Amino acid sequence: MIYTISTKNGKVLEVGEFNRENGGGVRIWADAEGNTQRWQLEKVVGDYYKIVNIFSGKVLDVALQGLDNGTWVHQWDYLGSDSQLWQLEDIGDGYVKIRSKHSGKVLDLIQLGTGDGTPVQIWEDVDSDSQKWSLVRVDVGEAPKAAPAAKKPAAKKAPAKKPVAKKSAAAKPAVKAAAAKPAVKAAAKPAAKAATAKAPAAPKAPAKPVAKKPAAKAATTKAPAAPKAPAKPAAKAKK
Q1: For 166-186, what is the mean pLDDT?
Q2: Torsions phi, psi of 107, nearest 5?
């Protein structure tokens, strides 16, 4: 079975820089769903497993079979040594401690790191979050087999739909073309009649200037009444 091995903050254990060589560094990184971040657990003896990277085929190993706190963990060809065997200790809430058979120390993050690129090491068990891991199963090997099976039925159905699409598409233009021609002719004939009917009514407009001329004559007849004002000779009587 294949797993991701992740920290409490969601980063996953991976082989860095797509390295396939012995001694390639092991670190944590954001989950990119790549095979460098996928691990196969294979039981070897008792409760101990070798932890195999899917990308490189190499196993999780304590460098130089170290026993001390701070010894780095890397990948190496499987040699059957105790430094390559690990026990998964269930601590509840979905987490395990990954304990080395060789030293009894647990898989740990250097300087309690949580960021991308933090390397892993072994350290005595102090029950810190940097020593708690979650294993989530991923079926990487089954996905490619399911994909081709899903595509084959879709390819067979596609040709059956194409003839139907062509028949309906050819019928629609024929209906639209027939409807369009009568509509244009019917609209053109009423428009021409309406224009000829309104044209004779235009000469009636000159009747308006006739109404304005009498109004001007009325104004000239009232003007002679103004000279009656010279009644001022009353001033001579004062002399």
Answers
A1: 40
A2: -65, 130
